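Q: what does this look like with copper (II) ion bound?
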Amino acid sequence: MIALPPEPSTDRRVVVNWIRRGGARRVDVTKFLALLSTCLSECLTLCFVEIGYLRVMARYFPSVALILLSIAPFGFTQDSKAPNAQIAKGADAKSKQLAPATKARVVKIAMADGMRFDPPRIEAKPGESLLIRIENLDASHQPHNFLIIAPGQVETVVREGLELGEKGALSGFIPRHPAVLASTRKVIDPESFFELPFTVPPESGIYGYVCTVPGHGLLMYGALYVGVPMPPLSKDSNIPQITMEKGLAGGGRRPFVQRMFLPNSGPAAIGVALPGAQNICFDAGSCRLRYAWRGPFFDGTKYWQGKGSELGELAADPWWVSSEFPLKMEGSDLTRVKFLGYNLLDGIPEFHYRAGEHEVFQSVVAAGDGVEIRLRIPTASGTVAYQKDSGPYKWVSPQGKSIGEQILVPAAAAARFSVFVQPAPGVGN
Ligand SMILES: [Cu+2]
């Protein structure tokens, strides 16, 4: 805590010099109001007792005006945030003095667990005034810093930060580099925040933000979109993949099941993120798999933001698309289907439905480049035919025989069998 200056009423020059040195900016507004009232009362007393009113005003007005001007830019605007400032132990009071006089848009960014910024990207207009409130909520209690970087320069700045070596600790691991447009100027301790005023440059582009604490920069960065449209989160290559996945349904967890409207499916679609980076869409309306895609899951942001009719956005195009209900059985009609629910087996859903007179249990697991479709038809009474989708796929069934466009599974083996589908060799990656 900075001490108050010497008794201000004894000599107005002390007060004025102290304010000029910036001392006034480091104490709270209550103390300032006390100081101000002392000065004003001194003025008034002199005014009536000592000399004539006009003479005193001529002599003291410049000092009073200077005091008022010193307080105006920070005191009254920041005072409303005083309770927060007390909660946050490490908030840098000095940052507040730089808050733009114009009304800045407040943007909140958290330093979150797993070395990431949340949100991983923000949008701003060219020339816009922002007040970026950066809060360290990392449950692993690590300090982080925050730098805003000119387009395309994040890696350079991260490298410069590493080259600071041991000296880096003195400057919060923040290198001096022309591409650093703004920074916290120090690390932000756990459970603390920092308010960074930032005027967005007039040039449109994708600016970066990054933490340059050694070892953090390769993972802990985000993108500031200025006058440039944001791509869907799941397809944004300007943010780390792990951070992007955190923003997707399931937050990167696998296995994970999510009911959602998905493209090219009926309204009863269920997305499943499988262990091993495969994802499937099961359509509970028609009781069949619709497609599979590799990599991150899907972005349900638009759906969750209240536009309930929006579709989830797949993070990648499907490598396999199924065109019809695939099961037929000798002597039975399986075309009428009814979804009965699903059970989770180690987190992976086993869908349960009725097809004609038979109950079918179906789950999918990742297998090599493709997936294994596991089927159980306990009451199978005739040869089961699984219709292969035409396309660049490779089909195999250990229990069945591939004949033409079908895999034939004898009734005795249909109580439990698997069909593997993979991209044909040379297709996909
Ligand atoms: Cu960090």
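The CA atoms of residues 357 and 400 lie 22 Å apart. The first strand starts at residue 105 and ends at 112.
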